[in-house]
Amino acid sequence: MSRIAYVNGRFLPHSHAEVHVEDRGYQFADGVYEVVLVQNGVMVDEIPHLERLDRSLDELRIAHPMSRGALRSVMRELVRLNRIRNGLVYMQVTRGVAKRDHPFPKNAKPSIVLTAKRIAMPSQETVENGVKVITIRDIRWERCDIKSVSLLPNILGKQQARENGAFEAWQVDAEGNVTEGTSSNAWIVTQDGELITRPATNDILNGITRLSILKLAKRQGLKYVERPFSVEEAKKAREAFASSATAFVTPVTQIDDVVIGNGKAGTLSRGLRDSYMEYAAGEGATA
Question: Of 85, 120, 132, 182, which is least packed with CB atoms within 10 Å of its CB?
């Protein structure tokens, strides 16, 4: 069965899904996006993702292309048409089509595109062995809290990670502190068992999975704090992990050339991953 996409009011074969050459998302990266996990056929953290989409649109002063109810209906129909059980729904909204000029066009109609695809869940071996991350200089703009389609620094960082045999690149600010990964949030567990992640300022994207993990940590009575942490502190940590809608909770067992802990997924990381997977299958799921 061929994949189906949604483009500006129409469900189309994926191979026929197109936008205009003067769409501002294509020419200026003048747009935002969201990615929602589908697990066992239902959305995970759907409403928080849609709330963040609304915020991103408002921050860039892009008109909302449809009501939330209509968008949710499109998402479900796309999952149904593509027969997605475990996968992703990707949605992108741009300012629309207009003659190429930097200022906002008058009376622009926003463009909206949605796609869906299946994904494979990480193997148990990957979870137990953890993954490697490298550290790179953070060269992004000062509004990383907006989920913009302008991702070139992230792409360059992810490619650098791949070329170094790593799962992810953790970006580092001018003070030597980790901001976040190129497509995930960064976490460490100190030798005293305290869970640390950077606070949600404009320096990072406030991950929806990040927020769910903090909620679960609070419920479980875990010690946690939102504060910056340095690369040096990360390399001395007892545990580390990355989180995102697609990584869930992925243990990190090597940072650059330094092995974290005993080189295997730590107890707290594994426990939070198990808790998150239970949450995604239950409380966090919306049919």
Answer: 120
Reading the block at residue 221, the tokens are: 């009575």
Q: What token pair was written down for 140?
A: 């992004």
Q: Please, which residues have CB within 8 angstroms of residue 247's CB and are 6 or more apart in sequence?
A: 122, 168, 183, 184, 209
Strand partners, 87: 38, 118
The answer to whether residue 117 is catalytic is: no
Q: Which of 6, 34, 33, 37 is nearest to 286 (CA)?
A: 37
User: Would the CA dihedral through 20, 24, 28, 30 be positive or negative?
Assistant: negative
Residue range 66-84, pLDDT digits in tens:
999 999 999 999 999 999 9
pLDDT in the model for residue 48: 97
pLDDT band at 2 (very low <50, low <70, confident <90, very high): confident
Express each pLDDT in 226-271 by its tens digit.
999 999 999 999 999 999 999 999 999 999 999 999 999 999 999 9
Which of 106, 109, 132, 147 is catalytic? The answer is 147
Query: How far apart, in whole angstroms, are the C-alpha atoms of residue 56 and residue 265?
Result: 34
Supply the Cα-derived Rg of the chain in whole angstroms: 19
Question: Model pTM?
Answer: 0.95
The sheet with strand 285-286 has its strands ordered as 10-13, 4-7, 111-118, 87-94, 31-39, 42-44, 285-286
Strands 224-226 and 195-197: what pairing?
A: parallel
**Axis crossing angle, helix 208-219 with helix 46-59, rounded to the nearest 10:** 130
